[in-house]
Amino acid sequence: MSPPQFPPSPTRAISSDGPFRALLLENIHPSAGEMLAAEGFQVERVSSALKPDELAERLKGVHLLGIRSKTTVPLAALEHAENLLAIGAFCIGTNQVDLTSANTHGIPVFNAPFSNTRSVAEMVIAEVIVLTRQLFERSQEVHAGQWRKVATGSHEVRGKTLGIIGYGHIGSQLGVIAEALGMRVLYFDVMTKLPLGNAQPAVTLEELLGASDFVTLHVPALPTTHMMMGAEQIAQMKKGACLINASRGTVVDIDALARALQSQHLGGAAVDVYPEEPESNSDGFVTALQGLPNVVLTPHIGGSTEEAQASIGKEVATSLLKYFKAGASTGAVNFPNIEAPLIPGTHRILNVHRNIPGVLRDINRIVSDLNANIHAQVLSTDANIGYLLMDLDQDVSTPVCEAIAGLETDIKTRILS
Ligand SMILES: NC(=O)c1ccc[n+]([C@@H]2O[C@H](COP(=O)([O-])OP(=O)(O)OC[C@H]3O[C@@H](n4cnc5c(N)ncnc54)[C@H](O)[C@@H]3O)[C@@H](O)[C@H]2O)c1
Ligand SMILES: O=C(O)CC[C@@H](O)C(=O)O
Fold it and tell me: Where is the ACT domain (predicted)?
């Protein structure tokens, strides 16, 4: 593993004078822009994702960045984003961001862990029924003027087994709805999870694959989930079973899935996510699954409902504003989580520093040398960084902030006045 990349030090304190700028990509719901604008942000909205080079260019002078799943945020985009305070991923997945580099550059990443959970679960339930009743085939035939009234290969879902891989927020919500339809629910997770309703844990992935009529994936994109459904795992599924993937495109070997559908080992599939996805709605798209029978292909819309998007917009904008206005990092996925009430009559200094011995001593020496009184001091650390929140008398806060920003260990410092 390569060593963490820190920005060059010492840095300068980020100005507490506006104007503050927010860049919102990928058609983030207007509710987010409205909330940021109401707090004085100049909000720039872009309907598509940006490529890393263009992102790096557009991030200059930007304080808050909002993305969804299509914008990759690599180290190169963060290196020159000197004013960038935080990133909001207006979705659940955060694998598109180089979380370690964001951490070492003092940039917390916030997401919306539950706002589209229900939308994904409802879509998957719909797909289970659509696949087992071959509704797309029948519909296409009638659209084409054919009347093929058949029952062969068409089944009720009642009494069938739904195998859920990844029994987290989405997987467990899905299990509850599936049981209401009379399905038997089996799940496999690497963590021990509380089974909801009558759901049963499978001891191994193989056990789940061999026992399920429908297998649905709800795991994050991780090195350990990369291609976890390859040719071998697909072969372990029951003949005629259906595979559903609304998690991440890296989790299923699409070519192996296409082969299993062509050979009729699998009876159908529904796929919402792909190893490579277009950056905007105007781009074309090609996958080996196109044209195969009983295959539902959707353009990564599992979480795309008006309810979910409005809720995500508000949730992530709220997190970004709480971080901007009070330094609250609760919920950040890559950052020490701290939060403390603002103390009237004081100024708050927020400092991110390299987590090496002696930093707090150096900071407290600066405070002591300037004869400042500390009203509150909260520190939390992780392997790479320390995140310090400190409330001081107003008359000394600016020189303290500037002196801290000048330390060799400083990553990012600002003052809330
Ligand atoms: N299609 C969409 O529009 C859409 C919408 C929302 C989320 N997602 C994707 O769905 C994923 C799951 O969302 P969630 O909110 O349920 O996440 P979650 O973190 O609540 O649940 C994920 C579960 O997967 C389990 N897991 C991790 N590695 C595993 C492995 N190797 N085998 C089995 N289980 C494993 C975890 O222990 C956890 O319980 C997200 O990470 C995101 O990538 C897609
Ligand atoms: O809205 C998106 O782009 C991503 C939705 C989904 O994959 C998520 O991670 O929440």
Answer: 348-417
